[in-house]
Amino acid sequence: MIVLRLIGEFGSGFTGPSKQAYLLTKGLENKGISSIILTFKKGSVNLKRSKIIEYKPFFGAGHYKLSLKMLLDSLRKDYNIIHVHGYRNFQTDAGAISSFLRKVPLIITTHGTVRGYEFLNLDLKSRLPNIIYDAITMKFSLKIAKIIVATSKSEAKELISFGIPENKIKIIPNGIEFPNINIKKKDKGTINLLTVSRLTYKNNLEMAIKAFYEAYKRNNKLRYIIVGDVIPSRYGKEEKGYKEMLIKLCKDLGLQDKVIFKGWLSGEELWKVYCNSDLFIWSSRYDNFAHALVEAAYFKLPIISTPVGIVEELIGKEGGFIVSHENYKEMSERIIEIVENPKLMIEMGEHNHKQSLNYSYERMVGEYYKLYKEVLQYK
Length: 379
Description:
The protein contains 14 helices and 15 strands. It is of the alpha/beta class. The protein folds into two domains: 2-177 and 360-377, Rossmann fold, CATH 3.40.50; 191-358, Rossmann fold. The strands form three sheets. A seven-stranded parallel beta sheet has the order 3-2-1-6-7-8-9, sandwiched between helices. The protein has a six-stranded parallel beta sheet with strand order 12-11-10-13-14-15, with helices on both faces. Strands 4-5 form a two-stranded antiparallel ribbon. α8 (242-252) links the parallel β11 (222-227) and β12 (259-263).
């Protein structure tokens, strides 16, 4: 079996769908399946059986990049199945056209790109490209796909509300490559709250900072650590100056030395921060999955989150609390409830760790391997 995989970026150094596609490809190689990856940006890779072709787009409008060579290659390469990642991009269009003309099964993993933008209260200018795309294409790629993969139950509901038949949707949660590390908590003299996130309008860190401020007034042992930095996204003017706005908010609230912006961390540096933290908070306006929630759960952290992505399946009623969007006062109350009950904190962390093991990347690879075989049987 050979898989044609189309994605904007591909490699281990990226985050989100790009990293997931790489882990999937690497895991499939161990099962004897090769892939041909067509991408606009190749990152760090360590693959033996797969071929990666990188293209320079000759046209781009926003996040939409176009390459006729990518389309031609997708039409003439030798493969058994097409798997594209995302929606409303040229890679998906090229995969759909190739699937239609060559009668090869198409799988689309949407990664929150179908209705996600509708949850962000964007202005019309930011929403308009999505509306125009759907009108022009008439959802062609989604209609001809054999299977559309959602990464959580919440994303599956979004797809159904977008008009996708329920029997065409398969839920396969993303997979995490967990570190082999001895998780030990130390007495630091402070209680560390943690968020690992891009500094982006979507992730709504101003809500988390305000919640921390309210909680800090009641417990001055609290500290808030933010790991992450700015990555350009498709959300238009809402992103401009976002990091500067967060820093100013901390200054206005007198939190300059209480909220620590760590920037990007990875590997052992990131795992050390998780180990030295006590509670994970997530204030996102929208997520289809949210990898950081699973990482936090693996490191035995209680979680307070808005109702996004995988959180309901992950923490249930035992691993933390789900709070309303934009309600920073509710989040602050939940912070105090957890940090002032050490026994509850430990119990929640242990529950989350056990749940996190259901989201290994090996499990994800196995589910996609099974799906590929099923799709080829009714080709």
